[in-house]
Amino acid sequence: MAREKRASFAQESYWGRPVPSFGDPDARVLIVGLAPAAHGGNRTGRMFTGDRSGDWLYGSLHRTGFANHGPPIFAGDGLVLEDVYVVAPVRCAPPANKPTIEERDTCLGYLVRELPLLARTKVIVALGGFAWDAAIKTCVTAGADPVRPKPKFGHLAETKIGPYAFLGSYHPSQQNTFTGKLTEPMMDAVFLRARQLAND
C-alpha cells in the first residue's frame, strides 16, 4: 500500500506499517474504528489522520472537548486527545480499504491485550457495524460474558458488555457524510453521550 502513493502525496514518505493506537492512555472513552486508510493512517502513521474520515472524527472530538484542536494534518502537529483513545481492530491498510473478518481475527489479539491496559476506560464508541462486532468480540475474548442475543448496531445504540458501556455511531466515511446519513450534530451527539456515560 505504501508503494502505491496518491499523486497528491507523491513526495511524502508513507508510514506503511501497522498503525499504533493514539490518544490518552488514561482515557475513559475508547473509540474503535475499522482500519487505517491507505492514504490516511497508512501514510501518516497516526490512527485516523490524513483523510476526510479523520477530519470529520477529530473535528467532532474538538467540538465536544476531547481534542485540543480541529482536524489534524500530520503526526507532530500538536494534536492532543484528552480522555479519549483511538484504536482499530485491523492495524494495517486492507486492500480497497475494506477489512475482512479474517484480517480482524488475525489482529484481534492486539486489541485484546491492549484493552486491559486502558484501566480507566468505561465507554466504548464503535464507529460502524464492523467496529461494533469487533469490539464485542474483543470484550468477550478478554473475559466478558457474551450477551444473547447479540446487541444490534445502530447510531446511538447502547448496550453494556462486561464493565463497558457500548455506544454505536455511523462511521464518518465519505459515503455516510456526503449523503447526509451522518451529520456533524449526529456525530457530536455520540461524543456528548459518551461523556455522560463516562461520568455515570
What does this entry show, briefly?
The protein is an alpha/beta fold and 200 residues long. The chain has helices spanning 41-44, 52-63, 101-114, 129-141, 174-177, 184-199, and strands at 22-23, 29-32, 84-87, 123-127, 158-161, 164-169. The chain has one domain: Uracil-DNA glycosylase-like domain (Uracil-DNA Glycosylase, subunit E, 3-Layer(aba) Sandwich).
Question: Topology, please?
Answer:
Blueprint: E1 22-23, E2 29-32, H1 41-44, H2 52-63, E3 84-87, H3 101-114, E4 123-127, H4 129-141, E5 158-161, E6 164-169, H5 174-177, H6 184-199
Parallel strand pairs: 2-3, 2-4, 4-6
Antiparallel strand pairs: 1-3, 5-6
Helix pairs in contact: 2-6, 3-4
Whole-number total of structural domains: 1
Strand content: 5-15%
CATH level 4 superfamily: Uracil-DNA glycosylase-like domain
Report the CATH architecture.
3-Layer(aba) Sandwich
Largest sheet: 6 strands, mixed
Shape estimate: globular
Roughly what is the average pLDDT, rounded to an integer?
Answer: 90
CATH top-level class: Alpha Beta
Number of helices: 6
Q: For the record, give the distance between the C-alpha atoms at the N and C termini, rounded to a whole number.
A: 42 Å
CATH topology: Uracil-DNA Glycosylase, subunit E
Which runs of at least 5 residues are low in confidence (pLDDT < 50)?
none
Task: Give the beta-strand count.
Answer: 6
Q: Write down the Rg.
A: 16 Å
User: Could you spell the SSE succession in H and E letters?
Assistant: EEHHEHEHEEHH
Major sheet: order of its strands?
1-3-2-4-6-5
Which class best fits the helix and strand makeup?
A: alpha/beta
Helix content: 25-40%
